[in-house]
Write a structure and sequence with these properties.
By secondary structure, the protein is α/β, with parallel strands linked by helices. The chain has a seven-stranded mixed beta sheet, sandwiched between helices. Helix 2 crosses helix 3. It has eleven helices and seven strands. Bound molecules: adenosine-5'-diphosphate and magnesium ion (MG). Magnesium ion (MG) binds next to helix 3. The site of magnesium ion has 5 residues, from helix 3.
Amino acid sequence: MSRKDNSIYEQVNNPNEPAKAPKRQRRKPLLLNEMSPFAVKEAYKAVRANINFAIGAKTGCKTFLITSSVAAEGKTTTAVNLAIAFGQTNAKVLLIDADMRKSSIHRYLGIKNTLGLSNVLSGYTQLNEIIKKTPHGFDCMTAGPTPPNPAELLLAQPCDDLLNTLSQYYDYIIIDTPPVAVVSDCLALVEKVDGVVITIREYYSVHEQLEKAISALKFADAKILGFILNDSKGNGRTYKYRYRYSYRYNYKKGYSGYDYYDNYGDYT
Ligand SMILES: Nc1ncnc2c1ncn2[C@@H]1O[C@H](COP(=O)(O)OP(=O)(O)O)[C@@H](O)[C@H]1O
Ligand SMILES: [Mg+2]
């Protein structure tokens, strides 16, 4: 290191200045693309095929929702990436953000959320202003402003009407919802869809929470299409020798913490 470099080093690390806490950084969304690891792409293709099998023979639009027991298990990541994966088959795909309390799809996709699902469910009729085309091969309806009564809105007739109308235009409708063991919004939707996909983050949610979620879904007569094990810590051999629909990104060596989710549990 040259003398000049050294002086910069000392300036930055001035012992008289208190150390600054590193800025908390919001990680970039993990969107499926051609640079994604092979195993990740394959895992999504497998999930896509299995969702189709699980829904079974059905003509017309297939509608399913993604949920989990608690927050931050990877629902939104899964929903967006499944929309991409289904879009890759040239199907017409609509992704709806029905997590109106903690909407995030607009952030994942870098689009505005001024108008969205909450507006439609409260009587706004201009669907063409609400549905946005994305460059990822699917259309998207963001959540819109947080309403005071999300569960009631999802339960009411306008939500049925909306899904019926949309099903005339799309091959797949994928709905991102809040965690089922935390709030009941998702349960309001189960009878309006063809099935439910449950995301489980490995070593994150606990057994009782998952059990609570599954029994709530069963009680609501949900058709559980399957489970996605997300952020699996399994080694590479998992994909070769034991086929699981799990995936894990490992771009940054050393990332393993859940610092980002510190204040994520509060859903009310
Ligand atoms: N497989 C994964 N590997 C690493 N980070 C992930 C993975 N899945 C999700 N994440 C990250 O975890 C956080 C929460 O994920 P998200 O999909 O928003 O969860 P949820 O919608 O269930 O609350 C986000 O920062 C997301 O990028
Ligand atoms: Mg989410």
